[in-house]
Specification:
alpha+beta
């Protein structure tokens, strides 16, 4: 396992726009920046939005903004004290 894989996870940042229902027949347009593991496809993001956000009426678009890295958590066994990342 190389240095990158040891300490980092690949992620993809998406910009998502969708409509949601609010009070009595009002529709609100929403734009959010969301982060997923890199193995999640754009088509899967379209399916995940209505499943994990409330009152979604329609997903208008999903665009890939950027690829990135997410630092894996480095903690002691009791999960109270964070360990420093070793270079």
């Amino acid at each position: 396992m190389g240095r990158i894989e040891q300490y980092w996870s690949d992620i993809t940042v998406y910009v998502v726009e969708f409509t949601s229902s609010v009070k009595e027949s009002q529709i609100r347009r929403n734009r959010k920046t969301l982060v997923f593991h890199s193995y999640v496809t754009k088509d899967e993001v379209y399916q995940l939005i209505p499943n994990y956000l409330a009152n979604v009426v329609e997903v208008l678009y999903v665009d890939i903004l950027e690829d990135g890295l997410y630092l894996k958590e480095q903690t002691t066994t009791d999960r109270k004290e964070k360990l420093p990342v070793v270079p």
